[in-house]
Write a structure and sequence with these properties.
globular; 177 residues; single chain
């Protein structure tokens, strides 16, 4: 099947935390990459992942690939970053407009605060981002050039309203089960 995937130009969205939680097995990432299959990283949905943390997914994808293959050089940090960015854009068929920072592409970027002691020292930035950073370090987010998160505060959505709605749904779901 892996050879067929490569020949057919299949894109795979690897969701390692969801796969682990659901005991769905292990994606043979190293073998698929060897065959030229585009592997991206996703979180799946809240029901099978809970935190939807792309930093955690990158870390899990890199570590699992090493463990499954028995090769510690498989999926280095830079490749995990590519899987979460440009490879994901390729899988969605939107790599001509996003996935990398280039003139003419949408300005979808995040700022990450690595000044705290738990992210020090920084020797290798890709390695730091994949192995020692989590979503709580994201300070700012821009999508298509519009700032949606500024110093960890939402700029277009009301966080209290979202939390209240989530709590209402939790109560409704709890009462129905």
């Amino acid at each position: 099947e892996m050879d067929w995937c490569a020949e057919a130009g299949v894109h795979i969205v690897h969701c390692p935390e969801s796969n682990l939680k659901l005991a769905s097995g292990f994606t043979p990432v190293a073998e698929l990459i060897k065959r030229g299959v585009n592997i991206s990283i996703g979180t799946d949905g809240a029901a099978s992942n809970n935190d939807l943390d792309m930093f955690a997914e990158m870390r899990q994808a890199a570590i699992l690939a090493k463990g499954v293959s028995g090769d510690p050089s498989v999926v280095p940090a830079y490749q995990a970053l590519q899987m979460a960015t440009i490879n994901a854009a390729k899988a969605l068929g939107i790599d001509s407009i996003t996935g990398t920072l280039e003139t003419g592409k949408t300005a979808d970027i995040i700022a990450i605060d690595l000044s705290e002691i738990e992210t020090q020292p920084i020797y290798n930035l890709p390695s730091q981002l994949v192995y020692a950073t989590s979503r709580d370090k994201v300070s700012d987010v821009w999508v298509a050039g519009k700032q949606l998160l500024k110093q960890r505060q939402l700029t277009t959505l009301n966080a209290q309203h979202i939390s209240a709605q989530a709590q209402q749904w939790a109560t409704k779901i709890r009462s129905s089960s």
